[in-house]
Amino acid sequence: MSLSLQTSFARPRAWWRGFWRKAAVVAPRGLYARSALIVIAPMVILQGVLAYVFMERDWQRFTTRLSTVLTQDLAAIIDLYDSNPEEANRVLLARIARDRLKIDIEFLPLGPLPPALPKPFFSIVDAALSNEIRRQIHRPFWLDTVGRSTFIEIRIQLEGAILRAVAYRSAAYASNSYIFLLWMVGTSFVLIVVAIVFLRNQIKPILLLADAAEAFGKGRDPDFRPVGAPEVRQAGFAFIEMKRRIERAFDQRTTMLNGVSHDLRTILTRFKLSLALMRQTDETQDLQKDVDEMQRMLEAYLAFARGAAGEIAAQIDMHDFLEDLRLDAERHGYDLKVEYSGDPIVAVRPDAFKRCLANLIGNARSHAKKIAVTATRDQRFLTLHVDDDGPGIPADRREDVFRPFFRLDEARNQDEGGTGLGLAIALDIARSHGGDISLTDSPSGGLRATVRVPV
C-alpha cells in the first residue's frame, strides 16, 4: 500500500478517534444517565425526524394547496380588473373580494413596490405562496407573511395601479399545526417519564448490589436479597456465593490459626515451666528473654495473619473510644492528647480498629515524647491524625514501612527490636474497613499518620 493511500486512511481514523474521545468527555458517566440517554436520545431524534417529515411534506402539501386557491382568487380579480379598469369596477371588485372571498383589496396608485423583506428562516407559506404567484400571475409582487401574525399582505404591480390584498393567514396556511406539535410533545413527555421510571427500577437492584458489596468490604453483614432482571439477579447470587466462600475461607484460616496458636503456646508454656524449675543463672535468664521474645513475635505474626477475621462491625461512640485510648496511655506512663469533632457514632470493628490506632500510637511512642490524636467525622469519612514530634520518616521511605517485616535502619523503626509488622497490621485493618493510611509531615515537627475510613 502506498504512503499516500495509508495517509488517506489514517486521517479519517484519527478524526474518528478524536471525535469519540471528545464525546466520552461530554457523555454522562453514571449508568442511570447513560441508560436514560440511550432510551431518550433515539426517541427525541425520531420525533424530530417525524416533525421534519410532517412539516416538509404534509404541511407543505396543505400549504401549497391553500396558496394555490388564494392565488387563483387573486388571478381572477386581476383578470376582471384588466377587462374593465374603471373606478366603478374597482369598487365592485373590492366588495366581491370582501364578501365572497374574505380578502380585503384596494387599488393603490402606480409606483415602486416596497423593498423585499428578509425571508424567515422557517416559513413554508412564504415559499409556497411566492412560487404560486410567480407561476400563475407572472407579474412583479411584494409579499409580507410575518409583519402581522394573523394576516398576509400581497402587493402586485398591474397596468396603471398596485393591487394590495390582505387575507387571513389561514387562507394560505394549515393553521392547526400546533395540534400536531402538542401531540408530539405530549407523547414524548409521557414516553420519557415512563422510560425514566422503568430505568430507575432497573438500576435500583444494581445499586443495592453495590451497597451490599461496599458494606461487606467494610466488615458489615449486609442483608441482601437479589432482585431485578435475571442478569442482575445472577450477579447478586454470584456475590452471595463469593461472600460465602470468603467467609468460609476466613473461618478455616481462623480455625487453623487458633490451632497453631494453641500448639505453639503449649510448647512455649513448657519452655517457661522448664526454665522456672531450673536454677537461675545467666544462661537461664538469656533463655527466658528468648522465650519472651519468641512469644511476642508469635503474637505479632498471628495478629497479622488473623487480621480482623470473625469480628463484626458495630456502632460505637468514637469520643469514648478515643478517651479509652487516652486512659490506656496514662496507665502505661505517657501522655496522649485527644480531640474529636463531628457525630461521635461510627460503625467500625471495635477491637481491630483499636489495634490499628494502638499500633500507630505505639510506633509514635517509640520515637517521640509528645503524641496527639485528632479525629473528625463528616458525612462520608472518619479521619484521624496521629501526630508526634519525633525524627519522622524520609518521604521516599514512607511507602516501604507498610511492607510486612520491613524495618528502617535509621531515623525511625516501627516495632523497634520487633517484627516490623506494626504498620502493616494497621494498614491491613484500615483497608479492611474500606479506608487507607497515609504518612505525611506533622505540624508538631515529626510524623503524621492519617487514618481515613468511610462511615
From TrEMBL:
Question: The organism sits in which domain of life?
Answer: Bacteria
Keyword Nucleotide-binding present in the record's keywords: the answer is yes
InterPro entries given for it? 2C_sensor_his_kinase, HAMP_dom, HATPase_C_sf, HATPase_dom, His_kinase_dom, HisK_dim/P_dom, HisK_dim/P_sf, Sig_transdc_His_kin-like_C
- Which SMART domains does UniProt cross-reference here? HATPase_c, HisKA
Q: Which CDD domains match?
A: HisKA
Q: Which residues cross the membrane?
A: 31-55, 178-199
Q: What are the GO MF terms of this UniProt record?
A: ATP binding; phosphorelay sensor kinase activity
Matches recorded under Pfam families: HATPase_c, HisKA
For this protein, the Enzyme Commission number is: 2.7.13.3
Annotated protein name in UniProt = histidine kinase
Membrane-related topology note: Multi-pass membrane protein
Could you tell me where this protein is found in the cell?
Cell inner membrane
Q: Which SUPFAM superfamilies match?
A: ATPase domain of HSP90 chaperone/DNA topoisomerase II/histidine kinase, Homodimeric domain of signal transducing histidine kinase
Domain annotation Histidine kinase: ranges = 259-455
- Keyword Transmembrane helix on entry: yes
Please report the stretch or stretches of sequence annotated as the HAMP domain: 200-251
Q: Which organism is it from?
A: Methylocapsa palsarum
Q: Which UniProt keywords apply?
A: ATP-binding, Cell inner membrane, Cell membrane, Kinase, Membrane, Nucleotide-binding, Phosphoprotein, Transferase, Transmembrane, Transmembrane helix, Two-component regulatory system
One GO cellular-component annotation of the UniProt record comes to: plasma membrane
The record's catalysed reaction(s) read: ATP + protein L-histidine = ADP + protein N-phospho-L-histidine
